[in-house]
Amino acid sequence: MSTIKFSPQEKEQLVDKLQRYFERELEQELGQFDAEFLLDFVSNEFGNFYYNRGLYDAQHIISDRVEQISEAIYELEKPVN
Q: Using alpha carbons only, what angle is made at residue 14 by residues 59 and 5, rounded to the nearest 5 degrees?
């Protein structure tokens, strides 16, 4: 699996969110460089956990839909004498 990469716009939004969080919750200013460094660390260390959880959730949804389709097909069957 390749590394999760963000577009420059996404990275800018994430860095901004980190900076606002630090100011609001921790009452600390987080500079641009530090915010990018923290984002890279969190992405590298935790990103795969979130990515895998998203895959498991998607797999569960797909399994549910396939089961619903199978049931609908079964209901369409005609009796055979």
A: 55
pTM of the entire structure? 0.73
Query: Are the CB atoms for 22 and 30 separated by under 8 Å?
Result: yes
Query: Are the C-beta atoms of 18 and 40 separated by less than 8 Å?
Result: no
Q: If pLDDT is split at 50, 70 and 90, which confidence band does 3 have?
A: confident
Q: b/e per residue, 9-37, with b = 16+ CB within 10 A?
A: eebeebbeebbeebeeeeeeebeeeebbe
What pLDDT does residue 1 have?
61
* Residue 5, pLDDT score: 85
Residues 6+ away with beta carbon under 8 Å from 1 = 48
Dihedral sign computed on CA atoms, order 10, 11, 14, 20: negative
